[in-house]
Amino acid sequence: MQELFPRLDIYRIQLIALEALQEASEMYMIQFFEDSLLLTAHAKRLTLKREDMILNRRLRGRSDIINK
């Protein structure tokens, strides 16, 4: 929270806000792994490799949240 709002003294967060952050994080990770598995299938493999995830990050571009 300090990185997002450095000028505000935020020490507490509501439970509903924390649940929303968790839900968004889980959805992002699911989509990321689904896209990475598509790259694995394109390479005619069954095993997800680190290289698939690296390529996925490159394909998503600099605007993706994980690449900042």
Characterization of this structure:
Residues 11-59 form the Core Histone H2A/H2B/H3 domain. One of its GO terms (molecular function) is DNA binding. InterPro entries: H2A/H2B/H3, Histone-fold, Histone_H3/CENP-A. This protein has helices at residues 15-42, 50-60. It has two helices and no strands. It has 68 residues and is mainly α. 57% of the residues lie in helices and 0% in strands. Helix 1 packs across helix 2 (50-60). The model has no long low-confidence stretch (mean pLDDT 90). The longest helix is centred in the middle third of the chain and has 28 residues, at 15-42. The two termini are 17 Å apart.
Outline type: elongated
* Strand/helix succession: HH
Q: Which parts are unreliable, with pLDDT below 50 for 5 consecutive residues or more? A: none
**Strand coverage percent:** under 5%
SS-based class: mainly alpha
Distance between the termini: 17 Å
Number of strands: 0
Number of helices in the DSSP assignment: 2
Radius of gyration from the alpha-carbon trace, in angstroms: 16 Å
Helicity, in percent? Answer: 55-70%
For the biggest sheet, the summary is: none
Short description:
The chain is mainly alpha-helical and 68 residues long. It has 2 helices and no strands.
Which terms would index this structure?
single chain; about 70 residues; DNA binding
Write the layout of secondary structure elements.
Blueprint lengths: L14 H28 L7 H11 L8
